[in-house]
Amino acid sequence: MSKKSLPSRAKYFFSEKKWGIAAILIGTAVGFLSAVICVKGHIAIFGFNISFIVSPLIAGYTETYVARKKYGKTTGAISALLIFLLINIGSWVFPKEPISLSIITLGGLGLAFQAAFPILVNYLIFVIFLGTITYVLGYIGNILSGLTLNLTSGDKSKNNDSKDETYDPESIDLSRFNVLAVNTSEIHGKKISKNYGIMNSEYIFKPNLELYNKESSKDPVIFKQMEFGRKAALAKIMEISQKIGANALIEIEIDYTDIGGLKGSEIMISASGTAVLIK
Amino acid sequence: MLILTTPNIEDKNIKEYYGLVSGEALLGANVYKDMFSGVRDVVGGRTSAYEEELQKARDLAIKSMEEKCKKLGANAAVGVRIVYHNLGGTMGNTILVSVSGTAVYFEDK
What we know:
Chain A is an alpha+beta fold. Chain A has helices spanning 6-40, 51-71, 78-93, 103-116, 118-152, 156-162, 210-213, 221-244; strands at residues 44-45, 48-49, 180-181, 192-205, 248-259, 266-278. In chain A, 56% of the residues lie in helices and 16% in strands. In chain A, strand 5 and strand 6 (266-278) form a beta hairpin. The longest helix of chain A has 35 residues, at 6-40. Chain B is an alpha+beta fold. Chain B has one domain: Translation Initiation Factor IF3 (2-Layer Sandwich). The longest helix of chain B is centred in the middle third of the chain and has 25 residues, at 48-72.
């Protein structure tokens, strides 16, 4: 096929995509017709002709409908874009009645823009706009919760201070427990003679994200916190296992979960495993 | 260093278990990269910037786990699991890649 001459390749291209092109042309024609009807019939809301909004939409829908029926896939509403450009150039460059810049005109322009570039505008609205709103609301909520905490229980923060905040992972020695902790389902060369059931524990901490944001710090505080939290969670289940007479923990799973709502201000590390007696 | 997701090593005897080891890496996706990959999603392409970053983070996590294994005297990690977590709520732009497994010492049969 690559050896074919340019005209025959162009012919092949057009014969393959003729319905796609036809769909775009039909969409453009219908959109243009609707614009003409709107302009001739003076269909306007507050002096703003609705063809700005309706015509690209009609063109896009018609094109998509024809393309789906005949071409098999959508063509991307190219005619909507064409009509949008046509109408805007036509009305801004050759105004029969001058358009005054008001809120309604701007709103209409926004809607016309939305009709022409639906995915881009939806991305702007949903991701950036809503994202900013959630962030701001979360920020306000954090401030409010901080204020109420200070007002209702001023001594609660002192309790938090007394909690071990150094997060030194070396301070927890897991080898003092006579329990073998693995995350596999079996231990090679050993037989499980007794099952004690599932063991669970959690450790919740507030992550320190300040230092990790700086590029310069190589070992962020949050790593130490994670290591400390994991060891604390493991130590808890190992201690319980040893107490009930098990000498191994199999199938240990460690899970990290974000808790604390929209802004997710705390991390829970949970460890679970099965306590067994091996021989 | 052998890194396996299976509980056993074929044709080898696991001599000793050293317990749980793990490694992690944080991936701080920055705003500009976010925007860029967002735009690329709209245009319709693979967001390879993220994929590359994730690959780097995973390699880092596995490397730090390997180091811990070596420190214990192990020559393999079995039952390895890789998990990804999104930290920071709905606006979350921090991805935690965590790897955990069991450090073992194996010998030929």
